[in-house]
Amino acid sequence: MAFAMRVKVPPNSATLQEARHQTFDFFRTACRSIPSIMDIYNLYDVVTPAQLRSTIAAEIRKNAHITNPKVIDMLLFKGMEELSNITEHAKQRHHIIGQYVVGNHGLVQDVATKDENISNFLKNFYKTNYF
Amino acid sequence: MASVAGSFMASLSSHKPNQTLTRASNLNAVSLAISGKSFPSLKLSSAPSRFRVSCAATPETVDKVCHIVRKQLAVPEGTAVTGESKFATLGADSLDTVEIVMGLEEEFGISVEEESAQTIATVQDAADLIEKLVSKK
Hints:
The complex is a heterodimer of chains A (about 130) and B (about 140). Chain A is mainly alpha-helical and about 130 residues long. In chain A, about 60% of the residues lie in helices and about 0% in strands. Chain A has seven helices and no strands. Chain A has helices at about 1-5, 15-30, 35-40, 50-60, 70-85, 95-100, 120-125. The model of chain A has no long low-confidence stretch (mean pLDDT about 80). Chain B has helices at about 1-25, 60-75, 95-110, 115-120, 125-135, and strands at about 30, 35, 35-40, 40-45. Chain B has two domains: about 5-55, no CATH class; about 60-135, ACP-like (Non-ribosomal Peptide Synthetase Peptidyl Carrier Protein, Chain A, Orthogonal Bundle), CATH 1.10.1200.10. In chain B, α2 (about 60-75) crosses α3 (about 95-110) and α2 (about 60-75) packs across α5. Chain B has about 140 residues and is mainly alpha-helical. In chain B, β2 and β3 form a beta hairpin. Chain B is built from five helices and four strands; from the N terminus they run αββββαααα. Helix content of chain B is about 55%, strand content about 5%. The interface of A and B includes residues 20, 31, 49, 57 and 61 of A. Chain B: One of its GO terms (molecular function) is acyl carrier activity. Chain B: Pfam families: PP-binding (PF00550).
């Protein structure tokens, strides 16, 4: 099945450098499976591969401040799991569109530590018309 | 006639090297003048030992790469993106670089090996690598 291909072999990164390497590998795997994802969920009219790439990069960047290799391994494992779920069609089109195309602005409460980089203007803008 | 020329050349070559050798210690560029013909100057200190790919990338490839880079990094209109611009100076971090390489993979229909992807630092590097992979296909 698709998930057999996805297994990343070394679960324990010894150093931050190795964890970085694994992150880039994961990103490359995800980008290489974008064409099949677009095919499975019929996203051709909704989004371009470039937009999906930047969404994936944004998700990775959200956790860019982490320095503990074990935590990074855990995040990568979760990322791989999500990618496997998507590629083996365990999700549905509205999941993909809601989570990765439209984004979850306003649907999920912003946790302060994760969204430090979004400007205050944007935060207010998404919340209400009058500010 | 030939013997005269031969002896003339012999005397020239016996004289000239002494002068050029003494001058060589001062100058970087040595021009050897033998029988009136001067060869192009040879640099004693070679350029940094990067192995240049013999086939340079075509301008269209470089243009396409520049366009993709400009879009990916949202480079403002004033900044020039040329063959020699490094990704780091344009404001790309390592993830951006990987993303640009992925975008180029998709655009040109190639597959970049991981080791080659590590060595890409400038736009020209990327264009050369693309040319190599496209011609290998």
